[in-house]
Amino acid sequence: MMTVSAFKWVPPFAQGLVRDLRVRWALEEAGLPYQVKLIDNTVQASPDYRKLQPFGQVPVLEEDGLVLFESGAIVLHIANKCEALLPADSAGRARAVTWLFAALNSIEIVIQPLAEVDLFFAQEEWAKLRRPGVVESLKERLGELAAHLGEREYLEDCFTAGDLMMATVLRILRHTDVLDGFPTLKAYKERCEARPAFQRALAAQMAPFQQPRA
Ligand SMILES: N[C@@H](CCC(=O)N[C@@H](CS)C(=O)NCC(=O)O)C(=O)O
What we know:
Helix content is 56%, strand content 9%. It is α+β, with helices and mostly antiparallel strands and 214 residues long. The protein has 2 domains: 2-84 and 197-210, Glutaredoxin, CATH 3.40.30; 90-195, Up-down Bundle (Glutathione S-transferase Yfyf (Class Pi), Chain A, domain 2). Strand 3 and strand 4 (66-69) form a beta hairpin. The longest helix is centred in the middle third of the chain and has 31 residues, at 90-120. The model has no long low-confidence stretch (mean pLDDT 97). Glutathione binds next to helix 4.
């Protein structure tokens, strides 16, 4: 059975956004059972965990001696086992993989700076100066994404691992009203979040955070 690493606890601003969610969601879509290895800061910093994840982050996926890190690589690994995440035809697969990379390399890359400015450095003068430029670049990119999506349900003909990744990336904006300016993208993200597999994955990530802390 596959094992996914996840945090025992994170602050409320991160709960429901931690990147093991992508992996849990992919496993739920694929109908593959998994177990979770909950870690804390001590494990994260330990040499043993660094052997699995060089940067001490989550998620890690372990499967019969295979160890993977990077949520994109892990989701792709799972998607390869499941037609519901990667279409059977080679062109459809390639397009889905393209969107998975676009989510990480073209969208997350412009969303993450806003999360950092707002959630980690909000009181810093440089962050206040930087924010308008970050929002402007982000809105430009989201406009381009919305133009591609148009009135479609998903980025391609059906839901794929590319949508899974894109939805998790758009969710990082939940502390802002930026998506209100892009109603079709907001509806797209909500359509993806309404999938039962997503709901199961989210509930599973949230469960340990609701336990009393030792
Ligand atoms: N590029 C990595 C990023 C992983 C990442 O940023 N994980 C965060 C949680 S969402 C983490 O472990 N943060 C703790 C840290 O960096 O020390 C991936 O997609 O897997």
